[in-house]
Amino acid sequence: MERLVEKYQQVLHEYLTDQKEAALYQASLLGRKFIETGIGPEEIVKLHTSAIQQVLQQLPPAQIPALTLDSFNLLLEVVMAYSAACREYREEKRREMEKLQLYTKKLEEANEVLQIKINELNLVYQFVSAFSCVLRLDKTANLIVKKLQHIIPYENCGLFLKEEDGSLKKLAAVGARDFPLHILGKDSNKITWHRQFSLLFVPLLMDGETFAFLLLTPKKGKPKWELRELLAIIASQAAFVLTRALMYEKTWQQSITDCKTGLLNYSYFSQQCESALSQKRQLAMMILDLDDFKSFNDRYGHLKGDEILDAVGEVLRGAIRANDLACRFGGEEFALALFNTNPSHALQIAERIRKNISELKLDVPADLTISIGIAIYPQDGITFEELFSKADKALYSAKEQGKNKVCLASTLSK
After folding, report:
1. Sheet holding 154-162: strands in order across?
2. Most buried residue among 123, 184, 211, 365 by CB atoms closer than 10 A?
C-alpha cells in the first residue's frame, strides 16, 4: 500500500510538471493495480487528496489553484482505468462463474451416471449373491426368473433350455402366457425386441453360443438401451449359474443313476423309500429278477446281456408313473416303489411288466422271463428293510413256483 502511495505521488508530480502523456499512461496502470489490490473508489480519492497535498508543497503557491484543478484530470484517468478494470474483472468472474456452473452441471450429470452404475452394480451383486447356495437346476431356474423381476418388471417370463436334439425345454415360468417360440431365430445371440408380440428375447450364452434364453413381456413395453446393457450383464451371470446348475444336475444324476440302465441306484432308491415311509405314504414294493440270466450271459456274452438290461430298464420306466421309483441293485435284479398303489393294482402292473419282458424281441434264439415279488405297506411291513425283505421272499417263492411268475408277500404262509 505504501509503495502504491509513493508511486501515485510520483505520477502526480510528473503530470503536474508537464509530463502528461507518460503520467496518464502510468495512471491508467495504477487504476488497474488498485483493483488488483482491493483498493476501492473512496480510498482512491483519499489517496489522491493526500498525494496532491504532498506534491503542492513542493510547487509555487501561485500555481496551486490551477494545478489542483488540473490534477483531477489525472484522478479521472485513474478512475476510468479502475472502472474499466472493474468491468473486465466482473466479466472475467462472470465467465469463471459460467465455467463453474457448467462444470457443476457436468459433475452432477456424472454423479447421476455414477449413481445409476452403482445401482446397477448393486442389482448385479444382489442377483449373483442369491445363487451362492443354490445348485439344483429347478431351484436355479426358478430363482433366475424370480430375480429378473427386480431388474425389469414383467407380466410374463419364461426360461427355456435348448436340448441336444434341438428341442426346447421349459425350465421355469411366471405368468400364464404361451410364448410364440416359432418367432425365434436359430442363431440369435443378441437381446432382441419383438414389437409384434411385445416380447423381449434375452439369450444366455456359453462359448459364444445360445444354450438357453429368457422370454419376457415387460410391463413398460420396449426397454431402453441402457436397460439392455444391464440385461446383458445379468444374462451373462444367469448363464454362469445356469451352466453350473446343469453341470451339478448331470453329476447328481450320475451319482444316483445306474450306468447300464439309467434307472436309480439302490442307495438313492432306498433313501427315497425311507423318506416316503416316514410320511406314512402308501407304497407297493416290487423286487424283480431276470430268470436264468447268468446262463444267458454265459451263452451270448456280457455285451448282449447289457443290451437286455437296458431294454428291461425301458420296460420298467414305461410301466410306472413319473413319481414312482425304479432301480437296479444287482446284476439282473431290479426294484420298484409304486406310491398310492393297492395290492390289486400292484399285481396288475407286475403282470403287465412280466408279460412285456417275455415279449421283448431279442436278436438271439432265447426266451427272456422275469419273476416278481410284491410287498405292500403297511400290511407287509412298516420299514424299508421289512418291505424289501418281504418282497424278496415273495420273489423267491415265484422262483420256486417255476419262474416267470408274480407273487404277493401276503399270500405266503407265516
Report:
1. 168-174, 154-162, 209-218, 199-206, 192-194
2. 184
* pLDDT value, residue 186: 54
Residue 301, Ramachandran bin (φ over 0: left; ψ between -120 and 50: alpha; else beta): left
Alpha carbon distance 285, 390 (integer Å):
9
For residues 30 and 22, what is the distance between their CA atoms, to the nearest angstrom? Answer: 12
Q: How far apart are CA 26 and CA 23, in angstroms?
A: 5
Residue 196: pLDDT band by 50, 70, 90 thresholds? confident
Q: What is the C-alpha to C-alpha distance for residues 414 and 403, in angstroms, rounded to an integer?
A: 21
Count of C-beta atoms within a 10 Å radius of residue 347: 19
Which position has the grid cell 442307495? Answer: 267
- CA 292 vs. chain centroid, Å, equals 56
User: Rounded to an integer, what is the distance from CA 30 to the centroid of its chain?
Assistant: 70
What pTM did the predictor assign?
0.66
Classify strands 199-206 and 192-194 as parallel, antiparallel or unpaired: antiparallel
Name the residue type at position 213. F
- Give, for 290, the enclosing helix (H) or strand (E): strand 283-290
DSSP codes of every residue in 140-204: HHHHHHHHHHHHS-EEEEEEEEE-TTS-EEEEEEESS----GGG--TT--S-EEEGGGTEEEEEE
Distance, CA of 272 to CA of 291 (rounded, Å): 27
Residue 155 CA neighbour count, 13 Å, CB half: 14
User: CA 78, 83, 87, 89 torsion: positive or negative?
Assistant: positive
